[in-house]
Amino acid sequence: MIRQRFGTFRGLVRLALSYPQMVLGLSSGKHFNTVTIRRLVFVCQGNICRSAFAEAVARRAGLRAASVGLSTTPGRPAHPPAITAAQSLGHDLQAHRATDLAEYHPEPGDLLLVMEVRQLARLSADPRLCDVPRTLLGRWTRPMMPHLHDPYGLDDSYMMQCLTRIERAVAGLSVSFPGARLS
User: Fold this and answer.
1) By three-state DSSP, how is residue 145 classified?
2) Residue 95 and residue 83: Cα distance in Å, rounded?
3) Is the dihedral angle over the CA atoms 93, 41, 120, 168 positive or is it negative?
4) Half-sphere exposure of residue 69: CA atoms within 13 angstroms, side-chain side
5) Burial status of residue 33 (CB atoms within 10 A of its CB: 0-12, 13-18, 19 or more)
6) Inter-residue contact 103 to 169 (CB < 8 Å)
7) pLDDT, tens only, 130-142
8) Torsion over CA of 131, 133, 134 and 138, rounded to 10 degrees?
9) Residue 86: in which H helix or E strand, if any?
10) To which H or E segment does residue 43 belong?
11) pLDDT tens digits for 108-166?
């Protein structure tokens, strides 16, 4: 059950720890005004599973979106199990190619949406991004899951669980950020 719902025992522990981090304000990111957001930028570790999928879902929903990885090989294709799971959810990751954070150029109106609390800290430490609003994508899942554990290399059932959570979170974003709509 842990593997299917949380990926690993570590994923469950990190999820459990993320709730008190939220209460203590350690996961609040950088505050923003929802009306000023014009583009959603999804961030994960490698930009080949979670953020790649979130971008695809957002674009399909008619939102301005991009995705980047904190530590990735630029141009790397999406992870094959992520491609398969995305297809079963009606999304196409075949053309996706990873973008590294170093290649990301912030634009006015960007909102960085990360998958894990520790990724917020990493973005906060980057001087280029000090003024870019950021928060956890998991704040839009129902129930709220501030930690969306990396499915890379884990079993297919967790990959599907993770991508389904992301899909639901992006649906919530489309209501929360009308300024990010393409039309």
Assistant:
1) coil
2) 10
3) negative
4) 22
5) exposed
6) no
7) 889 999 999 999 8
8) 180
9) helix 80-88
10) strand 39-44
11) 999 999 999 989 989 988 999 988 999 999 999 989 999 999 999 999 999 999 999 99
For residue 57, the surrounding DSSP H or E stretch is helix 50-60
Record the pTM: 0.93
Q: Which helix (H) or strand (E) holds 66?
A: strand 65-69
Q: At what angle do helices 9-23 and 117-124 cross, to 10 degrees?
A: 60
**170 half-sphere exposure, CB direction, 13 A CA radius:** 29
C-alpha 37/C-alpha 53 separation (Å) is 20
- Rama region for 136: left / alpha / beta (φ>0; ψ in -120 to 50; rest): beta
Place of tokens 């990959």: 159
Residue 163 token pair: 């991508």
**What tokens does 89 get?**
């959810």
Enter the tokens of residue 23.
């209460």
pLDDT at residue 2 is higher than 90 = no
How much is the CA Rg of the chain, to the nearest whole Å? 15
